[in-house]
Automatic annotation (TrEMBL):
The lineage of its organism: Eukaryota, Fungi, Dikarya, Basidiomycota, Agaricomycotina. Residues 226-238 have a biased composition (Basic residues). This is Uncharacterized protein. Residues 190-204 have a biased composition (Acidic residues). It comes from Serpula lacrymans var. lacrymans (strain S7.9). Residues 190-247 are annotated as: Disordered.
Length: 247
């Protein structure tokens, strides 16, 4: 059996319910690869790939004390709640995703691909587990698109197939292809042209410069102001004049 921590050994199991099923399956594969078939050896060897906490729980199980691998495996899955991982999504999770998505902007292919990944993560899982039907899967995916994008995509679908049955939800794959066409990255008009903005900025600068020059010119042409002399200044001037006469 692989030494714990090496390349082919299972990652140490610490009791996470989301990992317990994968951990057990991985352990069974390495047992098969190493020709470990005896129940007592299977039951004892699993301990080396578990944390101390998990190991102590397994050691207290009846089917570890009296080795029976299949029974012990079932108890490990039960005790560490593998069933909880099987119920990670419900239909209302999909509805929440759809309600949030159709209100958001989806103006690029990147935005759409992000939505598609989130949708398949939840909706695809529900479909695989028979929690929803294919029609529900298709309908919810369509409803998650913003209204403006739905209109453009519908036109594209009808363009490709004028006899399309509008009483049935559009097929997921067909919608994806239509969106990829509508939001394709190599559209001729999918570029930003800054020349107009530059011209506008230039005009604005010229206008501002002209305004400043005009303002400076106005200041230069402004006639000098005569400052009214104060009483103190008049007295000083008179005193100076009298002194000069005495001389």
């Amino acid at each position: 059996m692989p030494i714990p921590g090496t390349r082919y050994a299972p990652k140490k199991f610490k009791g996470d319910y989301t990992r317990v099923r994968d951990f057990v399956l991985h352990y069974e594969r390495i047992c098969h690869a190493n020709n470990v078939t005896a129940d007592d050896e299977k039951c004892s060897s699993i301990l080396q790939y578990c944390s101390t906490y998990v190991r102590e729980i397994i050691e207290g199980m009846k089917h570890f004390i009296t080795p029976s691998w299949n029974s012990l495996k079932d108890k490990i899955l039960q005790y560490f709640d593998a069933a909880k991982a099987e119920a990670k999504f419900k239909e209302h999770h999909l509805k929440q995703l759809v309600d949030a998505s159709h209100k958001k902007k989806m103006g690029s292919l990147d935005d759409f691909k992000s939505y598609m990944r989130k949708y398949v993560r939840v909706g695809g899982w529900l479909l695989a587990k028979s929690k929803i039907t294919q029609d529900v899967f298709n309908r919810f995916f369509w409803k998650g698109l913003p209204k403006t994008l739905r209109h453009r995509v519908e036109n594209r679908l009808l363009q490709r197939d004028p006899t399309l049955d509008l009483s049935q939800p559009f097929v997921f794959d067909d919608v994806v292809k239509a969106v990829e066409h509508v939001l394709r990255r190599d559209r001729f008009d999918d570029e930003d042209f800054d020349s107009d903005d530059s011209d506008s900025d230039s005009d604005s600068e010229n206008s501002s410069s002209s305004s400043d020059d005009s303002s400076d010119s106005d200041k230069e042409e402004e006639p000098p102001r005569y400052i009214r002399k104060t009483t103190k200044q008049k007295k000083e001037k008179k005193r100076t004049s009298e002194t000069e006469k005495e001389r």
